[in-house]
Design goal:
CATH superfamily: Beta-grasp domain
Largest sheet: 5 strands, mixed
Shape: globular
Order of helices and strands: EHEHHEEE
Low-confidence stretches: none
CATH class: Alpha Beta
Helix content: 10-25%
CATH topology: Ubiquitin-like (UB roll)
Distance between the termini: 32 Å
Number of domains: 1
């Protein structure tokens, strides 16, 4: 399945793009997406694997946890809750 992830402040600065595309296996969940992002974009790893302030993932205008299933064409938004804006 193909997803396009929108990266909010300051996460997008780590990869130099506001959106990144990923191909994931069918049946992937948000947790799988986060692991793939950390692997594909190593500068995001500290943000994604941090235990103190985990990122927020919005999917279909709701906060999604690691167990939420993704669908082909999903457009999740990844935000860091302490970013100003």
């Amino acid at each position: 399945m193909h997803v396009v992830v929108r990266l909010e402040e300051p996460l997008w600065r780590e990869v130099g793009a506001r959106e990144v595309s990923l191909d994931l296996p069918e049946g992937s969940r948000v947790g799988d997406l986060l692991r793939q992002l950390a692997q594909t974009f190593p500068p995001l790893r500290p943000w994604l694997e941090g235990e103190e302030v985990p990122p927020l993932i919005f999917l279909d205008e709701a906060v999604a946890d690691a167990d939420v299933a993704l669908r082909d064409g999903a457009r999740p938004i990844l935000a860091w809750p302490l970013a100003g804006g």
